[in-house]
Every structure is written in structure tokens, then in C-alpha cells.
Amino acid sequence: MGNQLTLGIQLEPEQQQWVKAGDVLRGKVVAFINKHQNLQPRNLSIQLEMYGKEKTSKRQPKGGDATLEYQFFFVNLQLRHPDWEREIRQGVTYVMPFTIRLPTSLPSSDSFLEDSSVGSYRIQYKLRARVAGKAKKETYLRIQSQPLPDERVPCIIQPTNYALSSLRLVNRGRILLAARVEDTHVGRGEHIALHLACHNDSTAELQRVKISFVEELYWTATSTSAARLHRSRTLFCLRDVTVPGLDKSVKTREHVRSLTANQEESFHQLYTELMSGRNKVLIKLPTQMRDTYRGRIVKVIHHLVIDMKTEKTVTNPSVSIPLRIGEPAVRSSGPPLPVVLPAAPPVQRHYNPTGATAAAIPSAPSQALASVPPLEATAIPSAPPGALVFAPPLEVSLATMEEPDIPIVEAIAIPADAAFSNVVDATDNVMYLGDDAVLVVSDHDNNDHFEANFSGRAPLSALEHSPVSLDTLRREMMASINDYDIILRHLQDSAWRQLLDNLSPDNFGSLLACVNVDFDQPRVAYLLASGRPNLTCEHVAAAVRNTAEWNRTGMVKKLLPRCADVIRNDFLIRNELNDWERTVCEVDFARARETGVVPAWYP
């Protein structure tokens, strides 16, 4: 009998290869009516679905693959041509435009298929148009993530005291090795600025410095097992780096025996050496690399490894520095602007919390993403002259405060394991998310109605009746893609802002412990602190306790200028720091004490 209906999906030409996260996805769904028998005009509608997911597989010992999927983004639109209210004509192609503003936090498309005998993973996106029981059309999209935040995240690795010994277990003395990176946010094709410092109090000669850039891939392929697949590879290696200022001199046995544990003095000398810039190495990254990514079942981790090569029979000291790789940040021309939050406005459920303008799509995206299935652009089926019928455009986006009358809704990144929620019915211009929650959008120009169904387990705070509470926020953050955006969005809501501006020190710290990307912890802490005049040393101390070890000094440097009681209570922060961290932050404490005043509210 043949198909009654043929579907196609067309995207704008410039989006048929790559789409930038945060961009507006523009396209058309076309429906060619081959036969109109049994097609009921009032019941005919097209479901347009877009989803992003992590998909993993693992080769089973007895054959076959175990697979696991995690869906982190889903939007479901119901498209209906206005003419279908009256009749459906045979031999006519109906065209229904749509636009979807993508979340800015979507990760890049990616895949690892190089060792399929063991397992593989994909981060992929798909558009699907379907009419239940009659027709279906699918096409893949390739998404490129937003640039890295325009914010430097330095890293200073605490010196490691390596006690050297030879194969005969003879004490050869010690080597203190320290390193710092000016910015752990490194874009593809950009330079890593690495600084080294070393004290060689040993009888072993430091022969050379080796620097390696390592990429580690982790993925889970079974929901019943905690076992993870792991692949590690060195993307590049500099085997003999010349660093003239390093202390490579060999000490005598008498010197080694006379060593005293004057750690504070050693730390001060090493820190001074690190900050002097004398032992600086610039390392240029390749232009084709994966993004650093921490998903639910897929993780991509990058770090820089520095090895000090000694004699063959002696231990080789080594340190590792975490890095966050992605699209190069769009640097502002002036100094970074402080976070400025407006006075708490009325609740604006349709307000765009990011307001980000998408950058131009790169002409040469990462080769690592090349194995993602290419986008298929479907041509509009041929139709007799005059038989092409266009529907009014349907927009799926997020209204800004400057455009309050546009009847549009947001395409939200929905974590699959966030709070469970019941079905909630919504009214015009108010967004609710939950399992199969429905939002009706009205076209005020012609009174047409389109239903946009958002399915999936959504953040509890996105529901109308969700309590404004720390438990709600923690559950959101534990399953989110971008915790910074969640906090920023909530700070636009007067009820949430009242809660977040009055966090106790323990609650302040517990929220930072929920931040899924440790590079973002100081950034999120500064955002939480920006709206309150009463940030105390207790808050900073709690933040330090809940921050990744390598980022603790960065947290202190970020929050100390906003701390109101440094003069009286800086010891609360110092007590949380070790000797090295106090050395690194000493100049920040001194500066804060010079400029600080005891606030009037302090008892």
C-alpha cells in the first residue's frame, strides 16, 4: 500500500556540519502526503524530539556487548500545521519551521571507537521527527561546546619531598619539586605556561626534565557493576626540556647527612623561585583534542606530568597538574568584570539567566569528533507547483526581559538522575519541568497553539511547587551539567536569593562540595559571595575544607578580598591551611589586613 506520509528534516546550511552550544538551531520539518486515507486532520501531529546522551558499551566475555545510556538533554515538540484543522490534501508537502535555542552548557559530540574489542563510548545528539505508527525520520547533529570561561584558574602544586634511594636502598638524599601553571583553562592551540622549582639535596644528578601531556578516558558500561573501562594515552611528550635555572647540582654525602627539616624556609625559597618566572616553559597544545569532560558515565581527564630524570638506578621525582581543555576562551579586552547581581527582582520564570551570545562556529573542529555520524540533510520531497504549504515558525527558546511578550519556552539540559517529579500542567509563558510536563505556547498573531512537551527527570527546582531549600539545590547540583548556571539562575529569583545570601558557613561549604567540576569551585564560591555584605572568615574556612586539594589556595585568593572580618578572624582560615598553602597565600592575607575594616555589624 505504501507509506501515507513521508517525513524530512532540514537544517540551515551553516548548521549541517556543526552547531555551537547556545546557538539557535533553525530548521524545518517537511511532511509529504502520499495518501490521505485514514489520516484524521484533527488528530494528525508530528513529534519533533531532540536529545543528547552518553552511550557506552563493553565487550562481554561470552560475546556480545553490554551497553548503558545516560540522557542529559531532551526536548519534545508537537508540530501541527494550521491547515490540518480544516483538511489534509494528498500530494501536498507541508513545511513547519522550528527554532530551538540550545543550552550553553551542552558538551561537545565525542566518541572513542579505537578499541572496539574492549568497549567504546559516544556523546551524541539526534533529531527525530515521527508520526506514531505512520512515519519516522532521524538525523544526527554534531555539537561543539561553548568556549572555556574567561577566567584564569591558576594551579600551584605543593612541593613533594622525594627521598631518593638506589637499588641497594642507600639513602641518596632528597629532592623538593614544585610546579605551577598560570592558567589551567587551556584552549586547543593555546600555550600552557609552566613554572618549575627544584631543590636538589641529594647525591644524584638531575639529568633532564621530561614533560608529558596525558589524556585519560573512563566510562562505565554496565549498571550492575562498578567496574570502569579505562584508556590512557600520552598525547605528546617533551623528553629533554632545558630549564637552566633548576638546581641540578650534586651534593656530597656529608651535606645529605647534615640536612635539617627546615621546611618553612624551603617552602619560601621554592615559592619565590616559582613566582620569579626564571624557570618558565611554554608548551603549545595541539589544535585537535577532546574536551575535558565529567559526565555521568563518561569522563575525559587531562593532566600535565613533569618527571625529573635521574640516574638509572635512582627514583625519578614526578608531579601531575590537572588541566581543563576546550575551545579557547573569548578574552575580554580589559580586566575581568566583577559579578554584579541586580536587586532581587520579582520571580521571572521565563528570564534567560545566561544571556550568552554564541561565538562563530570554528571552521576546523576537533578531529577527535570526526567519528560522530555526519548530519543528514533531507531534501524537501518534490511537489506540484503551488502544493508547498508553510506553517508559521515555532520557536523553542527562552524569552529575555527585553522581550517579555514572545511566547517561547526554553530547551533545558535535563539530567536523567535528578529529582523525580510528578506530571505538572503549565499555563502560558510559565515553564515547568517534570516527567512529561506540558507547556502550551500560544502564537498571539494567529491564535495557533503548539504544545512543547519536556520529558525526563528534571531538576526539582524547575517545578512550580518545588520548595526553595538547600536540599532541593543540592539535588539539582549533584545531577547537573553546569552548577555555575544553576546558581546564577536562582540568584535572579527573590526567594532563592534570600536563601543564598544568608547561608551559614557549613551550608556555604556543603554547596561547594556539590560542584561537579573542581575547576569551577572558586568561581561558584565567588558568585555566592558576591551578593552578600557579610562573608566571614568562617565561610572561607568552610569553603577551603570542601575544595579540591589542588585548588585550595585559589579559593583563598578568590574569597579573601570579600571577607569582612579578616582583621579579627583570619586565623580561622590559616588553621585550615598547611605550611605550603600559608606560604602561597601570605601576601593575600597581608593585603586583606591592610585594606580590611571591622564591619559595623560584627559584634
Automatic annotation (TrEMBL):
GO aspect biological process, one term: protein transport
Species the sequence originates in: Amphora coffeiformis
Gene3D superfamilies membership: 2.60.40.640
Name listed for the protein in its UniProt record: Arrestin C-terminal-like domain-containing protein
Superkingdom of the organism of origin: Eukaryota
GO cellular component, one term: cytoplasm
Family annotation (InterPro entries): Arrestin-like_C, Arrestin_domain-protein, Ig_E-set
